[in-house]
Amino acid sequence: MAENHFHLAAEADSLIDLPNPYWTNTKIDSYVLAGIAAADAICCVELKEHSSGDNHVEAIALIKKVTGDGAKFAKDLATLLGLKTESAYGSSAKKDIDVTRAQRAADHLIAAARDRVHG
């Protein structure tokens, strides 16, 4: 699996220096995209398909079918997709705790995707 550019963007320390209080939203959005890409990779390897629609419930249901850790992956993806709605479409800056939640969920999915893709 190639390096996840969304994850690299979210990890960039330079975002912290932005004068805009919405930098947290930018970090969350990047973690969300990184997690979605990782979830797609997991589904492709394990299920030979990935979610291609706009319905988040379908994507969560699909990754839940992965043998073993599917329920955990579904929970991580649900966390990210819930944060996506809040950070991308909400009217307020998100808190650091939301960034941490997004980071943890994305990191879990990315690690699992790397394990599956690289064996």
Total helix count? 5
Mean pLDDT: 85
Total tally of structural domains: 1
| Unreliable parts | none
> Quick one: overall form?
globular
- Taken in chain order, the helices and strands follow as HHHHH
Q: Your description of this structure?
A:
Helix 1 (5-11) packs antiparallel against helix 2 (23-47), helix 3 runs antiparallel to helix 4 (70-89) and helix 4 crosses helix 5. The chain has a single domain, classed as Four Helix Bundle (Hemerythrin (Met), subunit A) (Up-down Bundle), CATH 1.20.120. The chain starts with a helix and ends with a helix. The chain is built from five helices and no strands. The radius of gyration is 14 Å and the shape is globular. By secondary structure, it is mostly helical.
